[in-house]
Design brief:
By secondary structure, this protein is an alpha/beta fold. It has helices spanning about 15-25, 45-55, 75-85, 105-115, 140-145, 160-165, 175-185, 210-215, 215-225, 230-240, 260-270; strands at about 1-10, 35-40, 60-65, 85-90, 100, 120-130, 130-135, 155-160, 190-200. It has 2 domains: about 1-210, Spore Coat Polysaccharide Biosynthesis Protein SpsA, Chain A (Alpha-Beta Complex), CATH 3.90.550.10; about 230-270, no CATH class. Helices cover about 40% and strands about 20% of the residues. Strands 1, 2, 3, 4, 5, 6, 7, 8 and 9 form a 9-stranded mixed β-sheet that branches.
Length: about 270
């Protein structure tokens, strides 16, 4: 079996290719047992040409280039690549970001040495044209996922989770958050590495900007997608929010309310006479 499959969902990111593939080539871990699966979502730039170029440069086990019909969002594109993956470990990594040299070595070593864990994720450096900083993530706790996504997008995990039926869903733009909830419900155990092992580049074409616009509905669908993980009152909030009920607001961006939040809101509404 291949040790690692790296899924690269791409749409018009050809101008980032040299930076991205260069960071992959600079890994301190050999790529000899790594399978790279590049999945293009109907790009109109030189993304495919760049992928073909780097397929001839990288010394990996195999470099697959897939061109499914246009999906318009990363989740289905990742699923398409994951369906072709043969690796013991799986990783989806966006090509507008870049690896730090120790990323693969540290993540693979941890999972190889700690079979009880299923998912490993790290801190990262976040950079934009005007600033750069270390994004510190907390150690994993299931309660975090009930209110916010504290697991990095670039998390590496055992294929047993995928084989068990975990999939990226297309009814929420917070696809990663929903995916990690599914992994947890499937029995996955998460481990945080407190080192910045990759660089996330913020730019105007990040898919996350679209996610922010659909924040309330995206969070509500995560709740309804995963019955049993959220409190019954939170599930009712989600259903009411999607119906446009005034007493079920979105709350702050990237935050799913708790049962306590909803109780406080209910009390405030009663006091206000609404």
């Amino acid at each position: 079996m291949t040790l690692l499959s790296i899924i690269i969902p791409n749409y018009n990111y050809g101008h980032f290719a040299d930076r991205f593939y260069g960071s992959l080539a600079a890994q301190t871990m050999s790529l000899a047992e790594t399978e790279i699966i590049f999945v293009d979502d109907g790009s109109s730039d030189d993304s495919l040409e760049q992928a073909c170029k780097w397929a001839g440069i990288l010394e990996c086990r195999e470099f697959k280039i897939l061109t499914p019909p246009r999906a318009g969002r990363p989740g289905p594109v990742r699923n398409h690549g994951l369906e072709q993956a043969t690796g013991k470990y799986l990783l989806c990594f966006d090509p507008d970001d870049e690896f730090q040299p120790e990323f693969l070595k540290n993540c693979i070593y941890f999972l190889e040495s700690n079979p009880i864990f299923s998912v490993v994720y790290s801190d990262y450096l976040e950079t934009s044209p005007d600033k750069s900083f270390h994004r510190f993530l907390p150690d994993f706790s299931p309660r975090h996922l009930r209110t916010q996504n504290t697991v990095a997008t670039a998390a590496l995990y055992r294929r047993e989770l995928w084989d068990g039926g975990v999939r990226y869903r297309d009814n929420t733009v917070y696809e990663d958050w929903d995916y990690w909830v599914q992994c947890l419900m499937a029995g996955g155990k998460f481990k945080h590495i407190d080192q910045p092992l990759y660089i996330h580049h913020v730019h105007e074409t990040n898919f996350s900007h679209q996610a922010e616009k659909e924040d309330g509905a995206a969070k509500a669908r995560i709740v309804l997608n995963n019955p049993g993980f959220f409190h019954q009152s939170v599930a009712q909030w989600a259903a009411d929010h999607l119906r446009g009920r005034a007493h079920a607001p979105s709350f702050q961006r990237g935050y799913i309310p708790t049962a306590e939040d909803l109780l406080k809101l209910s009390d405030m509404i009663k006091i206000g006479g609404i």
